[in-house]
Fold this sequence. Notes:
By secondary structure, the chain is mainly β. The chain folds into two domains: 3-84 and 215-223, no CATH class; 91-208, Jelly Rolls (Sandwich), CATH 2.60.120.260. Helix content is 2%, strand content 49%. The chain starts with a strand and ends with a strand. It comes from Streptomyces violaceorubidus.
Amino acid sequence: MYRAAKDGVRVPLDLEPYQTAVVVVRGGHRERPHLTESTVPVLSVERHGPVLRATVEASEAGTHRLVGTDGGHRYHGTVRVDDPLAPVPVDGDWRLTFEREGAQPVTAPLGSWTEHDALFSGSGTYTTDIDVDAVRLRDRRVLLDLGDVRDVAEVTVNGTVLPPLLWAPFVADVTGHVTAGRNTLRVRVANTLSNERKKPLPSGLLGPVTLRFRRRTTVELRRA
């Protein structure tokens, strides 16, 4: 989504804390159909005969107004999302195991592992099980939001290892990996060397951990 202006191109950005984005503007290309206004993230816009079809992704219920443009003409449409998309907290106790010889698992709520060993630097794995109803997964994208992580993380869902999370926001797309019924989540976290050098810092999976849901829908925009 963007809007051409006399002084350049205006691109709205909605970023989470510490999130980064790269915007590439290429010259010499014919302008394609696109949206200029939307209150939900836009995934794609295509022209189909007299209308524009936009695919958007909502994170909560509501009515959203869309405005698009193509060939100098404006198009308008509205999308209504009735799905509440309520998040699911992954709370309760987790099992933490430090990666060192002789380490015994510690079962406790999430928090800095300095509560268990203030001077440990290295990796630790947090494990828990979560039950998810099939209705929560149907036609939804599913995200695992780890909350606060010190300092990097790797998520495993039901034995499948996902790409590492190296910076905030620590969110993994677990669509297709989380299934109806019981699921096993493992989060391997590594901190810095500061702790073993007797300068302890908060470390590990601090959370809160939450399953979040997104609903994708396609809407037609008609010429104004």
